[in-house]
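Predict the structure of Thioredoxin domain-containing protein.
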Amino acid sequence: MRVTLIGAVVAALLTAGCDRQSPDQSQANAAAAVAARPGEPGLDRSQAGKPMPTVTILDGDGEETSLAAVAGGKPLLVNLWATWCAPCVKELPTLDKLSAQPGAPQVMALSQDMQPQPTVSAFLDEKKIGLESYQDKEMAVSGALGVQILPTTILYGSDGKEIWRWSGDLDWTSAKAAELLEQAK
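Done. Here is the predicted structure for Thioredoxin domain-containing protein.
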């Protein structure tokens, strides 16, 4: 019985992403949350039209900034991730490749890690990820957005309003991702 329960939790972790709430909560709850979202698996349009949160985050130099400042009036793809989240780390290289594609939206990998900013930057350097290291160690963005699962990626239009969000990992260089990203305006 115990082996079956452990297997179920591991399966939920691999398919649904990481639950950022607390280590003692079941990852099976995270899988149920993704499955309950409207639309395609992982896709949620229920927050479409809401403005991006106006909270302070840190850039790669540890300086305060905001999502709007990074977006600069252009579409912004915000990926909420953490170094301890295996699905998050798995998708980072595809986000890095996406960011180099012509016509791609601005890509922001926003770490939810609580360690000092240089630790997050060093992690990205070690993994050879060229994305700038943004950090939200207070988890103000994920809190303002009601995000419970990592990774979660949110697409904002040039008007600063949410278009959709994707819960769980995705290959951001795939045909599925290209179809979703066509909606950036």
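The two ends are 50 Å apart (CA to CA).
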